[in-house]
C-alpha cells in the first residue's frame, strides 16, 4: 500500500460572482493521478499557475476536489468526519513558503511548536517544555529560543521553527509547499540539508512542491512535472534529469543549468 | 525635516491622547461618584427657586422646576455614559460573536448573514431605532434594545471583514493542519489578531452612540423624567431658550466635549496602534 495515492483529482475554481449567465471557470487541476511510497521524496515542479499549490491544498484537506479521491494510508481523506480526519491529519503536516506569515506573531516560539503537541498529546508542562526544546535542538536552534517571539528571528530560522512544528508529531508525510523558495541560496542549502537529515532520522516522506528544479534535484528521489493542471512527465531516477522531454521540463531545466554547468 | 514632522505628529497625537483621555477619565469618575460631587439633589423640585442664575448654592443656576443644573449634569453623566457603555457592550457581544462565526464559517452561512446585513443596512439606522422605540414604547430598556438591535449589523460586518483577512493567513492554516479545534483557533489566533482594531472601533464610535442616546432622549423616547439626562435637559429647556439660553448651553456643551473627547481618543489610539505596527 502506498502512503499517498491521488486518483484522477480535478479541481475547478469559479471566477467572479455573477447571477446571470454562466460563471467563468478555471481548471486549476485537471486530472492528476500519482502515488507516493513511504520514505520517498517526490518533487513536483511546474511553472506558477500550473496547479501544484492547489494540489498541495487538496492533499492537506484544505480544499475539496471536484472529482477523484485522495487516499492517505489507504483511506479517503475527503470522505471523513472531522474527528477521524483529525487522527489522519496527525500524519500529514505542512511547511509553507512564507515563513513569516506561517507563525502567529503574538505567540512565543515555544507556544508555536507546542501547538500540535497540545492538540494530540496530553503532556504535563515540563514534558511539553522538554519536547519543544528537543525539537529546537533537532532543527539546529537554541533551546532558550522558545521564550522569544517570531519577530526576533530571520527567515531561515523561522523556517526551521516551521519545520520543528511540522515534525513535532512525527508525521509520515510532510508537504513542503515551496518551502525554501523564499530563502536565499545559502540558507536554502542549509534547510534542504536539514530536511534530508530529518527524513533519514524519522523515515519521513516529502512532497516537495517547487518551481526550482535545482532545489528539487537536491532532495527529491522522484520527479513529476506539472503543466496546466496535469502531470506531463515522470522521472523515477533523479540522475536522468537531462532525459526530460516535455517543453515545460526543458524550460525549467534551462532556467537552472546554463549558469553553472556541472554545478549540480 | 520629515523626522521632525513625524515627531511633531507623534507628540501632537500624544497630547491629544493625554487631553482626551483625562477628560474621559474625569467623566467616568464623575459618573461613578455622582452623589459625592453633586452639590444638590438633582431631582429635588423647588418652584420657588426656579430659573435662578448662578449662586453659591446652585453653581450653574436652576431650571424651570428649580432643580440644580450642575447636579443634573453630573447625574446625567451617569445615565449617558452608563447607557452608552451598556449599548456598546451588548452590541459588541452580538457583533463579535456573529461576525467571527460568519467570517470564519464562510460559504452559505456567510452569504445568508451578509444578505441579512444588507437588508438591515438598507434603512437609515437612526430612523430605524426611532421607529423601534416608537413601537416598543419609550423607556431606558427599550432605548437600549432598539439601538443594539439596529446597530449591531455595522460592527458585525466590519468584524467579519477583519476575520476574513486573518483567516487566510498561513498561521491559521497551519493551526488547522496541526489539528487545532475551531474554537481554539478563534480564541488563540483570530481574536488576538483583531482585538486592537475592535477596541479602536469602539472608541471611535462610542461618541456617536452617546449622541444618539441624547437625541432619542431629546425626542422624549429615551430616559424618562425625572431621571437626569443631557438630551432630555436640552428638551426641557426648549421653551425658555430665548430668555435663559444657558439652560440649553450647559448640557449641549457637555455633550459636545464628551463626544469630541471620545472621538479624539479613538483617533489617537488608532494612530498609536498604526505606529506600533510599522
Structure description:
Chain B: It is found in: Cell membrane. Chain B: Keywords: Cell membrane, Membrane, Transmembrane, Transmembrane helix, Transport. The complex is a heterodimer of chains A (264) and B (278). With 264 residues, chain A is α/β, with parallel strands linked by helices. Chain A has 2 domains: 1-91 and 173-259, P-loop containing nucleotide triphosphate hydrolases (Rossmann fold); 100-168, no CATH class. Chain A contains 8 helices and 10 strands. In chain A, the strands form 2 sheets. In chain A, strands 6-7-8-3-9-10 form a 6-stranded mixed sheet, sandwiched between helices. A 4-stranded antiparallel sheet of chain A has the order 2-1-4-5, with helices on one face. The longest helix of chain A is centred in the C-terminal third of the chain and has 18 residues, at 185-202. In chain B, 76% of the residues lie in helices and 0% in strands. Chain B is globular. The two termini of chain B are 19 Å apart. Chains A and B meet through β6, α3 and α5 of A and α7 and α8 of B.
- What is the CATH class name of the largest domain in chain A? Alpha Beta
Measured by DSSP, the beta-strand proportion of chain A falls in 25-35%
Q: Under the CATH scheme, which class of chain B?
A: Mainly Alpha
CATH superfamily of the largest domain in chain A: P-loop containing nucleotide triphosphate hydrolases
Write down the CATH topology of chain B.
MetI-like fold
Cα-to-Cα separation, first versus last residue of chain A: 33 Å
State the shape of chain B. globular
Domain ABC transmembrane type-1 (chain B): 81-266
Family (chain B): Belongs to the binding-protein-dependent transport system permease family. OppBC subfamily.
Protein name (chain B): ABC transporter permease subunit
InterPro entries (chain B): ABC_transport_permease, BP-dependent_transpt_permease, MetI-like, MetI-like_sf, OppC_N
